[in-house]
Amino acid sequence: MELTVLCASFVVFLLLGVPVAFAIGLSCLLTFAVEGLPFETSIQMMTSGMNVFSFLAIPFFIFSGELMLHGGIADKIVAFARSLVGHWKGGLGLANVVASTLFGGVSGSPVADTSAMGGVMIPIMKREGYSAAYAVNVTTHASLSGALMPTSHNMIIYAFAAQAASGMIGTHSIKGVSIGDLMFAGLIPVLWIMACMLVAAYWQAAKFGYPMAVDGKSLVTKFPGWGTVARTFIASLPGLMVVAIILFSIMKGIATATEAGAIAVTYSLLLTVFAYRTMTRKNLVKSLAKASKTTGVILLLIGVSNMLRYQMAYLEIPDTIEKALLHATSSPWLMLLYINIIQVALGIFLDMAAHILITTPLFLPLAIAMGVGPVQFGMMLLLNCALGLVHPPVGTVQFVGCAIGKISIGEATKTAWPYYLAIFIAINLVTYFPSFSTWLPSIITGHPVF
Amino acid sequence: MTEQESAALGQPRGLPWLTAMNARLSRWTMYLACTCLAGLLCVVVYGVVLRYGFNHAPPFVEQVALLLVISVAMFGASAGVRDAGHIGLDSAVRLLPAKAQFWCEVLVHILSIGFALALLAGGIEMARSTSAMTIPTLGISESVRYVPVIAAGVLITLFSIEHMVAQFCGLEVVPSWN
């Protein structure tokens, strides 16, 4: 009965269009009422869910991303990327991929990445002989790497959702997940995605003859020289350093993720206000306001997810799902395929934070039982979520890109398949080749990572 | 159509006093959230500097930071309700006829008010039951932790009522902070 109330009310609220955080909160409150538990306990659970020192990293990572977005770093990264690969066929598309990946590392947010890079690159690409759909697809899909970068607040959310993970992989005991391991685990998949996006962007540009003038003439430019490449790289280097600061401080044990986040914000502030002198008072307030609002939305989700976690454990939902899936198959290969299919389907409808918070407790225990560690599972989950960001009907990143490019979602989606294919390959590599995501953190930290 | 535009056309204006009050409340809520976020940054950086620079970890930093983060979260989430900042899944509702869509949206506002009232009542009850306890290292009552929750309950209720009234009058709620 309680399980029916929880699941049915959640689905009904979600379909009605109730904000996800409220839908989770209301369905949990209803279930508390049916169970006869005092409802103030649920409010206490929500508050204690948000009141964790490690979560302070979330507002800091978001704020740092907003400062980079409004601080004019994007132009410098674009200049570097253009000087490096802009003279090739489809040069602006390739420059866009490189710039979006680099800015993804600086902002840690695919949406911020698309806003910043799309705002600069899409109008230029349209003007210089590329179709709007090509410009939008290149930007939105390359921006997805932001979700796997060390500055990604979604990694912190996943670390929270996976904190109760336990089990054995071989002879190794698993207990929770290290944020440092996660940050390093994302780097090789990000490089892979960037390489695949470069191939896809080049292939499409060659196929359609981009860049092309209205009269059909090629608009490929000349290489500006290594001096320009070096000059633009030096100009963008201070902005890119934020990734190195976070990774270095966590790797060396100098700071926790929260402290690294605070250091990143301070660095971004000093850089944009004093070094680049690009941060205006208006943009600073805008960054603060946007970061506060996004923090509110995400932390409220985390708070209500704490209620949901309690209910799921109380009603033994993960056990039920585990049994149902184990009944369907005992082959790890097929099981992981099922998990990926379910996650891609959910990712199409759910926002990234909600997706991570809801599905981690459901599938992580099963994944551990199948020999997939929490770090590898985290990469699978983040990639599956990322795919949902560029897919209708809730593809936030695609919405932002299409709004900037002034085209419809349908128009953009028609030619997006090479980019979907690139992410699909990345998901399968992460799923079936553990070392694809765990090799680098194992080498760097010196301990086995799963 | 905004309230000013509808007034110029002699159409229903909703509840102008509620709109004016909520616009101001929403702005101040955002100011508070921004101040708390800036304060949070200062407190954590202060803790880092003292710990690494002077080998002294101030004991109050963690508790102050936790109080500030819950304030940022609750005030930010409340402002998100007025400015439609929360993420919902509306693709199913968009498939329905216009009249059904209208009533679904009304229901969403009613459910949002229900959630806000639960926050308010639960927050008051938790503040009451923890008032005798003190936060270690700060010496203030534990009930302070629930003040932002109570405030969020009130704010989300007011903002949702405004959205509902505006919907019945065919108006748009103009975000007070863009």
Secondary structure topology:
The complex is a heterodimer of chains A (450) and B (178).
Chain A (H helix, E strand, L loop, with lengths): L1 H15 L3 H16 L3 H12 L6 H14 L2 H13 L5 H17 L2 H18 L4 H12 L9 H9 L4 E4 L2 E4 L3 H7 L1 H22 L17 H26 L5 H19 L5 H34 L2 H12 L3 H18 L2 H18 L4 H16 L6 H10 L3 H6 L2 H16 L2 H11 L5
Chain B lengths: L2 H6 L7 H38 L7 H22 L15 H32 L17 H22 L10
Helix pairs in contact in B: 2-3, 2-5, 3-5, 4-5
Count of DSSP-assigned helices of chain B = 5
Low-pLDDT segments of chain B: none
Number of continuous helical runs of chain A: 22
| Mean pLDDT value of chain B | 85
Strand share of the residues of chain A?
under 5%
Taking the alpha carbons of the first and last residues of chain A, their distance comes to 38 Å
Q: How would you sum up the major sheet of chain B? A: none
Low-confidence stretches of chain A: none
Please tell me what the overall shape of chain B is.
elongated
| CA radius of gyration of chain A | 22 Å
How is the main sheet of chain A built?
2 strands, antiparallel
DSSP helix fraction of chain B: 55-70%
- What class would the helix/strand composition of chain A place it in? mainly alpha
Rounded mean pLDDT score of chain A: 86
Provide the gyration radius of chain B in Å. Answer: 20 Å
User: Considering DSSP H and I runs of 4 or more, what fraction of the residues of chain A is helical?
Assistant: over 70%
Count of distinct strands of chain A: 2
Largest interface in this structure: A-B, 56 and 58 residues
